Amino acid sequence: MANTISQAALDEAAARLSGAKRLLIGTAAGMSAESGIPTYRRPGETSWKNYGAFDALGIKAEDLSCPQAFEDQPELAWGFLEWKRRLVAEAEPHEGYAALHDLARAVPESFIQTTNVDGFHLRAGWDPERLHEIHGSFWRLQCLGPCRREAWEEPRVPLADLDPETMRAQDWPRCPACGRTARPHAILFADLDYVGDAPAERARAEFKAAIPDVMLIVGESGVIPTHVFDGRTLKREQRTFLINLNPDANSKGAREADLQLSLGAREGLLALAERVLAR
Predict the structure, then answer these.
(1) What does pTM read for this prediction?
(2) Which of 3.40.50.150, 3.40.50.1220, 1.10.15.40, 3.90.190.20 would CATH assign to domain 4-278?
(3) Cis, bond preceding 158 (omega within 30 deg of 0)
(4) pLDDT tens-digit profile of 109-131?
């Protein structure tokens, strides 16, 4: 349960959200972690741990999350991608997603930007026209070339045969235009070929330019401070009120925020939605 300090902070946050005309929301790994999705890294911890059979086989996951791996070792790169897609497909968006979406719909204008690639906002029913998946999505593919600046939806699971003993894939998807190996439509490391999502990028830019009066950041550690950077810029230049929901009170987001809610994503969002929707 939230402590007394958090209760007071929740009441203040709910008042800000209830009075907002334009709300920008940024979600990150801490949001999907409570649905069982491993995070890339946490402050003070080694990156790329918790990757099951790949760790046991001595396969470095970080070596498989770059375009060159899909070029040189497609059986391993696709093995890793197929394993992650199956893991995400078996998980479900927790109740905090519905709470966040209900809260956002209570505001006259709202927009969600996320650095997660699991597609949970869409699975939980959020409007794709009010969403920018900044780092892309595992549920879309693009050509490794790329031979064209387009992506295509691939919600099916599985997409490739996966040997559970070697974690190598077979019969992975290929580009329907040129036949080259397909790769995830997501930003990889050392990636110069991600084709992006121009409509979503434009919608996000237009929403920010129209000056949101509140920004809510959920589950961003600040190690890669995408939302914190946006929030700090909006706060400094547009006087946007910045609320940070993260159990780590020492995170970068907490230091930048006007109001810090030191709670997990699910607990904090359920408590906020209850207060906002009751007003």
Answers:
(1) 0.93
(2) 3.40.50.1220
(3) yes
(4) 999 999 999 999 999 999 999 99
